[in-house]
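pinging the channel bc i need a second pair of eyes. not urgent but kinda urgent?? the chain im working w is below, pasted from the shared doc
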Amino acid sequence: MRSNRLEAFSDGVLAIIITVMVLGLAVPEGTSLVSLVRTSGLGLLTYLLSFIYIGIYWNNHHHLFQLRPRVDGRVLWANLHLLFWLSLYPFTTQWLTETQVALVPTVAYGLNLFAAAIAYTILELVIARRPDGQKLRDALGRDIKGAISPVLYALGIGLAFVVPWLGLLPFVAVAVIWLIPDRRIERYLEAHPEDHD
């Protein structure tokens, strides 16, 4: 099967995830900027963080499948595994917001981020182990950001047990690291135009 169906489905799921997250934002109770900050300030910040994460996954997912024009059942299931963890973002984001960054919701949010990162790594590995996966292995090379991210998530989860707000700092750091565009696949495709789907 061609990967365009998988990509279209994934795009739709990610769009729904973003929509559900924005619908979870509290409407300010007044008309002033103070009301906005008091009622929705934290919600807007946690929404922004989760929105950035969804955007990062969408961007990297798009690049990943430029090197994989065809998919099989293993790739489909690995992709669904990733979408499962991403679909929990609205829940963990809302819980984090409504509890004012309490311990257990912060740990749950961190575990959600960690699980999504592992699921994306599994998706990459499943694709890389397919018969034509050498292209992806060559394009990715050493995945330093991919290796650092789970470590930072684990650090954030650990710090949450000290001060929950402190636990958010590594989560923000990972988002910032990945906001810098990862051009490995683009550079590979520029050097090997014949491998573009």
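so Residues 3-195 form one domain. and Residues 73 and 118 are 19 Å apart (CA to CA). — does that match what u expected or am i reading it wrong
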